UniProtKB/TrEMBL annotation:
Organism: Sphaerisporangium flaviroseum
Assembly mode: Homodimer.
SUPFAM superfamilies, per database record: Coiled-coil domain of nucleotide exchange factor GrpE, Head domain of nucleotide exchange factor GrpE
Family: Belongs to the GrpE family.
InterPro entries from the UniProt entry: GrpE, GrpE_CC, GrpE_head
Bias-annotated ranges (Basic and acidic residues): 8-27
Gene3D superfamilies on file: 3.90.20.20, Head domain of nucleotide exchange factor GrpE
Biased composition (Low complexity): 43-53
Protein name: Protein GrpE
Originating gene: grpE
Coiled coil spans: 55-89
Alphabetic keyword roster: Chaperone, Coiled coil, Cytoplasm, Stress response
Amino acid sequence: MTSPNSGSEHEGLVIRDNRRIDPETGEVRPGVGKTAEEPAPAPSAGAPAPDDGLAADLAAQLAERTADLQRLQAEYSNYRKRVERDRVVVREQAVANVLNELLPVLDDIGRARDHGELTGGFAKVSEALESSVGKLGLTTFGAKGDPFDPTVHEALMHSYSSEVTEPTCVEILQPGYQIGDRILRPARVAVAEPEEPAAGPDRSASEPGEAGEATADPEDN
């Protein structure tokens, strides 16, 4: 005997076939066997994205590392310039020290040339020496008639002359030597200055009739 409620127990029962393969056609049923994914909630307006803080931190670190690299590059560039400058200074100082020791020899060669004694093998040796020091940058200065310059001339003699209009080197007693703009030894010279103007006549005595002169009064006679 069937229970009077047996029919009502199966009411509302739904049977779904979730097989992906249709048993009748053998084809895959679209959308069957897959669970629909819920869409991710859209971020609210104005709210920062989850990675904004990380991106800002990375950007700050990148800027800091870039600044460090630029600073190191600038320091290295300055270091190279300073080393190169010091190297040039040391080389110039070493050359100057050597040439300073050779100046007396060059003076002797110059005096021998002036007296006509620079001949034969001695002349060839002196020419080779002067050529070598010239390649090192040594040059001479000081010529008769040059205006006197106390920064490059050393006055050993002084006189007056009517033939000059300013202090002038009239004799070169020893030539000067320099390397570039560096003075190794000033030129030793005799200097002449323009003659001083002659003093005017002495007018200490008063002229007749000038104030202070005693005159005779006619009434005194």
